[in-house]
Amino acid sequence: MEQFVQVLALIISLALAILVGKDASKRGMNPWGWGIGVFILWIIFLPLYFIVRSRKHNKLIKCPKCGISFESPVIITTKAIYDKYGENLMQCPKCNYSWIRK
Ligand SMILES: [Zn+2]
Fold first, then answer.
1. Ligand 1 center to residue 18 CA distance, Å?
2. What pLDDT, in 10s, does the model give residues 62-97?
3. How remote is the CA of residue 60 from the centroid of ligand 1, in Å?
4. Segment 17-63, tens digit of pLDDT
5. 93 CA to middle of ligand 1, Å?
6. Distance of CA 11 from the midpoint of ligand 1 (Å)
7. How far apart are CA 26 and CA 46, in angstroms?
8. CB–CB of 83/89 below 8 Å?
9. Domain locations in the chain?
């Protein structure tokens, strides 16, 4: 029975680590660092992850044309454009205006 609980805890830690890793990589955060951190010591790293994540979440970008604020505005159309502008290429999801972030 005790072994079963340990295995279950391991599976839950692993599942949490994978979820956090996937979420971190979507947000441009270190997926391995957070994933492994959560796996080893989720009681510390999971709350920490949500704190750091919500800080990033609040970083809104404002469209210079229509003035709405939004998050994760980066669009990558082609590799050539990405190589040239990287993640500084912005596009407004509302009016489709695009610009280069200075
Ligand atoms: Zn706009």
1. 35
2. 888 998 877 765 555 566 777 777 767 777 878 888
3. 13
4. 999 999 998 888 899 999 999 999 989 999 999 888 876 655 677 88
5. 7
6. 44
7. 17
8. no
9. 2-57, 61-100
Q: What whole-number distance in Å separates Cα of residue 63 and Cα of residue 35?
A: 33
In 12-96 the beta strands, taken as DSSP E runs, fall at: 61-62, 69-70, 89-91
Question: In angstroms, what is the span from residue 52 Cα to ligand 1's centroid?
Answer: 27
80: which 2 tokens? 């050539």
- Please tell me the distance between residue 58's alpha carbon and the centre of ligand 1 in angstroms: 18
Beta-strand (E) ranges in 12-102?
A: 61-62, 69-70, 89-91, 98-100
Residue 1 pLDDT class (50, 70, 90 cuts): confident
Distance 87 CA to ligand 1 centre (A): 18
